[in-house]
Design a protein that fits this description.
Number of domains: 2
Structural class: alpha/beta
Strand order of the largest sheet: 10-9-8-11-12-14-13
Strand content: 25-35%
Radius of gyration: 19 Å
CATH architecture of the largest domain: 3-Layer(aba) Sandwich
Order of helices and strands: EHEEHEHEEEHEHEHEEHEHEE
Number of helices: 8
Shape: globular
Largest sheet: 7 strands, mixed
CATH superfamily of the largest domain: Vaccinia Virus protein VP39
CATH topology of the largest domain: Rossmann fold
CATH class of the largest domain: Alpha Beta
Number of strands: 14
Distance between the termini: 50 Å
Oligomer: single chain
Helix content: 25-40%
Length: 273
């Protein structure tokens, strides 16, 4: 059976921000609103020129900047089948009876959100998480920039007691919460909307952060003197990775391992002795 959620995506870039009431009036084909600074990417499963026109008529301060059309498969860059990543088998819920070869099965509906496991930073974070889970119990996990919630789910399935998944984008929070329900983990992991740096004092044994360099730098500044024991930080470019390692060293962390993908995307696993 293949009941993938969408065949096509119609995306409208609007300059300005929408309210919850605005979104409710966009109709049944409206998928979600990706907020990017002061702009909104409105996702629909069918052409929505009429709905968007009504929105702009009602909210005259808004402006349509552009529109796009993708197949869902193109938007996801492929990745509509099961993926084996280390000990994990990541399975889309639209596959009826996928084989997972005795691995740890994660049901993942990415919707239109980043984090379908094709990106190397997601893969290396999963590898790093597996590595530390083999060393000691994970305890409480804080997942910053959770996206689809894949890393928080993996942490729980590797034995973490509980996890808090944070994302600034409301659409990510909604998608992650849906995936927690899908995997039967809603009682152990929670998705919340907010800035990563505002959770710097949140108690956590392990912090996962696949986020922008400037955000993780600010988080680490605010995290002291509390200091989390284990950090998995990804989404860093080459020069950013060098700066990050210097910052971690100054905060008393030691690097356990590093990963890079084509000398472009870097992931760091660090801990405090």
């Amino acid at each position: 059976m293949d009941s993938r959620p969408f065949q096509d995506l119609y995306i409208y870039l609007v300059n300005g921000t929408l309210t919850a009431v605005d979104e409710m009036a966009l109709g049944a084909s409206f998928i979600g609103n990706w907020v990017e600074n002061s702009s909104a990417f409105l996702f629909f499963s069918a052409p929505a020129e009429n709905q968007v026109a009504r929105l702009l008529e009602k909210r005259r301060e808004l402006r349509l900047e552009d529109n796009f059309h993708f197949t869902y498969e193109d938007w996801q860059g492929g990745g509509l089948d099961s993926l084996k990543i280390g000990r994990f088998m990541v399975v889309p819920p639209w596959l009826e009876s996928p084989s997972h070869d005795g691995g740890i099965k994660i049901l993942l509906d990415p919707g239109v959100v980043f984090g379908n496991c094709l990106h190397p930073t997601t893969r290396t974070c999963l590898e790093a998480l597996s590595l530390i889970a083999d060393r000691s119990p994970l305890g409480r996990v804080l997942d910053l920039g959770t996206g689809t919630g894949i890393l928080a789910i993996a942490a729980i399935l590797l034995g973490a007691e509980e996890a808090l998944a944070v994302d600034f984008n409301p659409l990510c929070v909604k998608t992650a919460a849906g995936n927690f329900e899908l995997n039967g983990l809603a009682d152990r992991v929670k998705a919340v909307q907010g800035k990563a740096e505002d959770f710097a004092k949140e108690p956590a044994d392990v912090v996962l952060a696949n986020i922008q360099h400037e955000v993780i730098r600010e988080f680490l500044k605010r995290n002291t003197p509390v200091g989390t024991q284990t950090l998995i930080i990804s989404g860093q470019m080459r020069s950013q990775s060098r700066d990050l390692k210097l910052q971690l060293k100054s905060l008393g962390y030691r690097n356990l391992r590093e990963w890079d993908h084509d000398m472009t995307w870097f992931t760091v696993l660090a801990e405090k002795p």
